[in-house]
């Protein structure tokens, strides 16, 4: 089904893209303008991927489900299309940046017109700087790579041979001061040569989705739930009134300040609050030092 190709107003450009050298003169787009407050993760890799590369992409992106992350890739054969499809499957927004114009008649590769349409139908976006009817050339792919690297907070390289367009994206990401992440692979596979070289040059090796979340400065849900679970265990025998004090002590406070706040907010007598403070100290949950009471 044909779709409408629009020009993206400069005010709606990805904020990080505005920081790069060689800014595009204009940007065309199809679909819904992305929410640029989300973290943009560019996922790139070999056109002739291995099963290992496919499984890694699908596993990583499935684990990122529910986080404020948008997957950016180039709509190419191999890892790019796997990344887009994994994002769609896991309800993560995805942005395709093809190396051709956005018109379905010239879209490259033609085998991905259905994928492009699905991205648009599911609330995603296609964008680049090429005129809508522009046919892909050898130079248009490296040129669009700077858009992907420039707009994204981090670039994840899954598989790449030592001389490949994927490494151009990684080099540009480094030049733009973005994080470069790389999947380690088998030393016997040529598609591992690129990621291994990047790791030697300082890229972050990615073992699981937590490494990606850390690079994007996002807290893992499991870390939050583990922390909550530990807190539940630690304070399981505290009374409701004792928990009022625990919750107040997110930062150390003087005794008089604790008494004042609990008394004012909850109308608990000062003597009773003093008793709870003593009980919490006996349980080893708080301690007083240098005139302040803090959690242990």
Kindly describe this structure:
- This protein has helices at residues 51-63, 79-89, 113-121, 140-151, 165-175, 193-200, 209-215, 221-234, 240-248, 255-266, 270-282; strands spanning 6-7, 28-31, 39-44, 69-73, 94-96, 125-128, 154-157, 179-182, 204-205, 286-289, 292-295.
- By secondary structure, it is an alpha/beta fold.
- It has two domains: 6-215, Rossmann fold; 231-295, Arc Repressor Mutant, subunit A.
- A nine-stranded mixed β-sheet has the order 1-2-6-5-4-3-7-8-9, sandwiched between helices. It has a two-stranded antiparallel ribbon with strand order 10-11.
- Helix 1 (51-63) links the parallel strand 3 (39-44) and strand 4 (69-73).
- The mean pLDDT is 91.
Q: What is the second-level CATH architecture of the largest domain?
A: 3-Layer(aba) Sandwich
Strand proportion: 5-15%
**What is the domain tally?**
2
The CATH class of the largest domain is Alpha Beta
Unreliable residue stretches: none
Order of helices and strands: EEEHEHEHEHEHEHEHHHHHEE
Biggest sheet: strands, sense, closure? 9 strands, mixed
> What is the CATH T-level topology of the largest domain?
Rossmann fold
Alpha carbon gap, first and last residue = 62 Å
Summarize the structure.
Residues 6-216 form the Smf/DprA SLOG domain. The protein has helices at residues 51-63, 79-89, 113-121, 140-151, 165-175, 193-200, 209-215, 221-234, 240-248, 255-266, 270-282; strands spanning 6-7, 28-31, 39-44, 69-73, 94-96, 125-128, 154-157, 179-182, 204-205, 286-289, 292-295.
């Amino acid at each position: 089904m044909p779709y409408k190709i629009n020009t993206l107003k400069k005010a709606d450009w990805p904020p990080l893209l505005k920081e790069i050298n060689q800014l595009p003169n204009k940007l065309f787009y199809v679909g819904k303008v992305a929410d640029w407050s989300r973290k943009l993760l560019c996922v790139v890799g070999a056109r002739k991927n291995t099963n290992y590369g496919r499984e890694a992409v699908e596993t990583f992106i499935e684990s990122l489900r529910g986080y404020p992350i948008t997957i950016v890739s180039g709509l190419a054969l191999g890892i790019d299309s796997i990344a887009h499809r994994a994002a769609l499957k896991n309800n993560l927004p995805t942005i395709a940046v093809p190396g051709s114009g956005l018109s379905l008649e010239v879209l490259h590769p033609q085998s991905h017109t259905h994928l492009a349409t699905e991205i648009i139908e599911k609330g995603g976006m296609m964008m680049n700087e090429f005129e809508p009817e522009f046919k892909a050339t050898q130079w248009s792919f490296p040129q669009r790579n700077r858009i992907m690297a420039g707009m994204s907070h981090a670039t994840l390289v899954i598989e790449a041979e030592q001389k490949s367009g994927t490494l151009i994206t990684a080099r540009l990401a480094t030049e733009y001061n973005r994080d470069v992440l790389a999947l380690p692979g088998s030393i016997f596979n040529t598609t591992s040569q690129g990621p291994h070289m990047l790791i030697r040059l300082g890229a972050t090796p990615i073992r699981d989705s937590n490494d990606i979340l850390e690079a994007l400065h996002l807290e893992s849900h499991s870390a939050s739930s583990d922390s909550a679970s530990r807190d539940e265990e630690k304070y399981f025998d505290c009374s409701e009134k004792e928990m009022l004090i625990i919750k107040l002590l997110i930062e150390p406070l003087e005794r008089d300040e604790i008494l004042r706040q609990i008394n004012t907010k909850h109308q608990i007598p000062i003597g009773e609050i003093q008793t709870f403070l003593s009980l919490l100290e006996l349980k080893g949950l708080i301690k007083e030092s240098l005139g302040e009471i803090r959690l242990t």
